[in-house]
Amino acid sequence: MRQYSADLTPPWKKPQPVPEVAAEPGLVVEEPGTGFCGAVIRCEAGTVTLEDRFGKHRVFPLEPRGFLLEGRVVTLVRPAAGPRRPARTASGSVAVPGARARVARAGRIYVEGRHDAELVEKVWGDDLRIEGVVVEYLEGVDDLPSIVESFAPGPDARLGVLVDHLVPGSKEWRIAESVTSEHALVVGHPYIDVWEAVKPASVGIEAWPRVPRGQDWKTGVCAALGWRVANTGEAWQRILGSVRSYKDLEPQLLGRVEELIDHVTA
């Protein structure tokens, strides 16, 4: 006699298997029921703790099909005991536990403003300390020729410079061309300000607003987003606080900073 299954659920209605992913520290997932998105900071028996970009913590149960990873449903599981994969710095480099900062090189990296310097420090700070590279900032690109002349770059003291909104034919472009040499490398990104090099999604916005020519860009951005116009410093702290790693930055900035570090440490 033929045996029939008691389960009459059509195959297309049955839950499909989903991958199991180890809840390693730093893994960014979303809990779909609440929409809470954050990085794993702790995984214990039956629960996982996530931290969002504002530093808020939430504890969730490790339930099957309970999380989204890059938009796909997954089941988080407790990491297996044993040797852990190497930790990474915010720039994506393999971390060196206990490494001491190297004595500063003669070479330097200059960036165009304080916000640029703070962003570079947050993402590449660990790498720069190990390499002994100091980052300083310009008050303006107009000062670059005198800084390069005073610095006198050479084989043992290479100079790297990051310039905002470096586009062919601009004043900044002509200044950069005038000081570039074998030991002085000037590169730039296409953004009006380094704020724009942070991915909009990381900040929690759909896109960076378009600001009419002639209007202060930062003020215009704050006004368009409903942020306090009178305090662009507060707005910057909000943006900087949303940056957790290199994944929150646009590739056009990542490549230029890595290029400068390679140049100065060559």
Overview of this protein structure:
The protein is of the alpha/beta class and 266 residues long. Helices cover 27% and strands 20% of the residues. The protein has helices at 114-131, 144-151, 171-179, 200-203, 217-225, 232-241, 251-265; strands spanning 20-22, 28-31, 36-44, 47-51, 57-61, 67-69, 72-77, 108-111, 134-137, 159-163, 184-188. A four-stranded antiparallel beta sheet has the order 2-3-4-5, with no helix packed on it. The longest helix has 18 residues, at 114-131. The termini are far apart. The mean pLDDT is 86.
SSE diagram, text form:
Layout: E1 20-22, E2 28-31, E3 36-44, E4 47-51, E5 57-61, E6 67-69, E7 72-77, E8 108-111, H1 114-131, E9 134-137, H2 144-151, E10 159-163, H3 171-179, E11 184-188, H4 200-203, H5 217-225, H6 232-241, H7 251-265
Specify the helix fraction band: 25-40%
Shape from CA axes?
globular
Oligomer: single chain
Our measurement of the CA-to-CA distance between the termini, rounded to an integer number of angstroms, reads 79 Å
Order of SSEs, N→C? EEEEEEEEHEHEHEHHHH
Tally of extended strands? 11
Strand content: 15-25%
Tell me about the biggest sheet? 4 strands, antiparallel
* Widest sheet, order of strands: 2-3-4-5
Based on CA atoms alone, the radius of gyration comes out at 24 Å
Structural class: alpha/beta
Arithmetic mean of pLDDT: 86
Total helical segments: 7
Poorly predicted segments: none
What's this, in brief?
This is DUF3097 domain-containing protein. By secondary structure, this protein is an alpha/beta fold.
List keywords for this structure.
alpha/beta; 27% helix; 266 residues
